[in-house]
Amino acid sequence: MTITAENLERHGLTTEEYQRIVDALQREPTLTELGIFSVMWSEHCSYKSSRVHLKTLPTTGPRVLQGPGENAGAVDIGDGLAAVFKIESHNHPSFIEPYQGAATGVGGIIRDIFTMGARPIALLNSLRFGSLEDPLVRRTFAGVVAGIAGYGNSIGIPTVGGEVAFDESYTGNPLVNVFCLGIAAHEDIIKGVASGVGNPVYYVGAKTGRDGIHGATMASAEFDEKSAEKRPAVQVGDPFMEKLLLEACLEVMRTDALVGIQDMGAAGLTCSTCEMGSRGGAGVDVDVSLVPQRESGMTPYEIMLSESQERMLMVVKRGREAEVEQIFDKWDLHAVRVGEVTTDGKLRVRNRGEVVAEIPNRALTDDAPLYRRPMAEPRYIKEAQQLSLASLAPPVAAAEAFTRLLASPTIASKRWVYRQYDHMVRTNTLVLPGMGASVVRVKGTKRALAMSVDCNGRFVYLDPYAGAQLAVAEAARNVACAGGKPIGATNCLNFGNPEKPEIMWQFARAVEGMGAACRALDIPITGGNVSLYNETDGRAVLPTPVLGVVGVIDDAANVVRRAFRAEGDVVVLLGETRDELGGSEYLKAMHGMIRGVPPVLDLKREAALHGVLVEGASSGLIQSAQDCSEGGLAITLAESCIGTGHGARIDIPATMSAAGFGDIATLFSESASRVVVSVSPEHEAALMSLAARARVPARRIGLVTGKRVQIAIDGRTVIDEPVAEVERTWSTSIERYFEPAKAIA
Amino acid sequence: MKFAVVVFPGSNSDHDAYYAAEHVLGQQAEFIWHKDHSLKGADVVILPGGFAHGDYLRTGAIARFSPIMAEVQKFAASGGPVLGICNGFQVLLEAGMLPGAMLRNRSVKFVCQHVLIKVEQTDTPFTNACRVGQVLRIPIAHGEGNYYADPDVVAQLEKNRQIVFRYTNAQGVPTGEANPNGSVANVAGLCNETRNVVGLMPHPERACELAIGSADGLVVFESAVKAVSQGAFAAVQ
Fold first, then answer.
1. Closest Cα in chain A, distance from residue B232 (Å)
2. pTM for the full model?
3. How far apart are CA A453 and CA A126, in angstroms?
4. ipTM above 0.90, yes or no
5. Which of A1, A92, A300, B219 has the lowest tally of Cβ within 10 angstroms?
6. Which residue of B has its CA nearest to A331?
7. Which of A382, A385, A391 is nearest to A658 (CA)?
8. pLDDT for A291-325, tens place per residue?
9. What's the CATH fold of domain B2-229?
10. Contact check, Cβ <8 Å, B209/A427
11. Which residues of B carry out catalysis?
């Protein structure tokens, strides 16, 4: 057959890429082969625009057991155990079909973790939506949350935390990034390799249907008004099937009968066969007629490209087949032999014996196109970085701004969200959602793991380099607040169309910043995911490079939570407040603008701060810790009061700012590297000297006392509200968009 | 003594019940696969939480047909203590071992949070170490925990003192606000007429250690140990 221009366009391939295919094959491809190339060379699978940049990230370290390139990264957490974790996006499907898009995003990342031989024990997510004033956004938001809940709750892995932020740029392109962490003994980590000539290749899990064909190419294109027509490209999740797969696979892995295993995610059978072969330096020969099918009349093309969920591909040691089959039988799953490992390094696809595709694995993987796309600084940046507070309408009273910020959906409690997630199953959750960084204990050890996913897209928009650094700093700081020493990270880079030089520039600068910050804080990135083409009708989302940081707490008894704990404790601010309202939640919520430059970040000081937090926690000095981020110091103080109901009497020095904005900058400036901690009076001196030794600025700013949030600036009271009232404003804000009558669950 | 934790495909709190019995309580525990035909000499049977068979039909509707359920029925009929937690409670309802049925939560959403429940009856193998009126802080995590029974059945349950746990406020008053799912009469847990089979929606196994937020659920397991050691609910094996 001849491949027409229309054929190429439907497959998202350029004519140059087509020529490459012909060169690699030394002939014209068949339609099946064209389909295989199109998904493997899609942005989603090949990282063709991003790879040259990603290579610059730090990915190694003494604790790193597995860096990028496998199904997930792994770091040593002591006691012979590894934390296996990764974050992945499911943005495009979640806009088209919120419930299933989000649900299958959860299913996909869980498979990545147990594929490595790890028992998944925690999920987090990082979500972005448009304004909740928009009914369509509310529908998407509610659907995504329900989808995450529906999948995670059923499979029994707790969703222990995460973040949700709102900005109009995400209206037609929400971000759904899901993080999963599992635990494995070092020696039990298993990889996605095919090797050993003649070893059988098994397919197990759900049957293959026509769902999700071209999901990977969909995720590599912008949205327009026709996007709704792509609904058949969204897969449907079955958490029960995945629960069976999870348990059966972990049981099989304990037998030592597997050579390698990989889940069928994006690009399905195609991706798993050629990637496993490529990693093992081997070939894989499969016959699609043996693949269990849900529908009749499926072509080899459709079977190879289907993204039906809950399927795994395994290479089994020859002679151990019966053992493996028996375990899957126990779980009422049927492992089917679909092919074998060969020596020739080729992916060979047969249909009832007849070869329908034959492609060198490397052409699909390592030798996929790599682009150094043109870059240009976006024109908006210089203009957006100009911020003149003096030209703004005079600010409202500090107390009013405080109340409005508390109710801003980005700042307000996410209780409406996390109450729908089972966050306690597996009985490891040491810090409940909303009470600080997520912390789970590691049963069988004294240790616990702290996790945080963060990114402030406004900062990245205003300065991608600085913004990405701030994302790293914030995620690591949150982990350190809980007492966790950051030991590894995973990233999910959400950007617009990389074919636009301005977007590519944002991307490259953000990756540079992220790399520099991770190096300075000594946090290797062990894997992650890139999601490009996050645009609707030509408008990109705020550049959102989300970072998920994992930290280890040596003694779970020393976990620190965010809320004040005892009357009479001393409140200390670690770090300094400067006049830094650029990109702040205050400017966005009160003046509707994203302007200025992001806060300055001194990475040395940030690292020193983390050291103080970790040591302060492990030595039992610190009673509570909460970092300052959106909304600044005033919001952090409010959050420190909420939960335990303790009030505080605070007096902070004024920060100089433009005329009339002094109080605002003092209270709501988003200066980096700041944490509010509380200590019992007898430990105050020890904490101060710990901070002094680390050269971290520390100032006593008040006391935990009473039942009111009282904040004064140089002795002049500017905020004085009952904690109960502050808590009501903060905790019901999102709920009121959905339950106007405030119905009880 | 030995706890049997039945594992249905889709059970997800099986490990938690096992951990509470074996590691927190220091008793013996054993997983029993749903296709097994023996409870392997267990003294107490736990049907754990989860989504047995995916619960795509009514919750618990398929699990009641698992081979092990015949053994659980026999064990219960001979007086053996059986505890159904969350999905396990739903299975007991479907199996007819407890009266009534579950509806979707009043909010039509899954709800996971700590709630307060009052122990109203202490003559069951899972509450005999409690005080009457004791209020426990225990989490719930369910989408279908809105207990329903006909008014006649509820009257009968009240008369027979079969309502073991009720959602209440901190003072032990079963208010509408304290009811997280819309259950009739604020029912959080029940027993059968012979009082040896108990089902409840809250998860006591998730509240056995202060480190994870509450240790109030431990008394449920301690009660089982006490019951077995006193031989009060001995099963004829």
1. 30
2. 0.96
3. 6
4. yes
5. A1
6. B9
7. A391
8. 999 989 999 999 999 989 999 999 999 999 999 99
9. Rossmann fold (3.40.50)
10. yes
11. 86, 203, 205
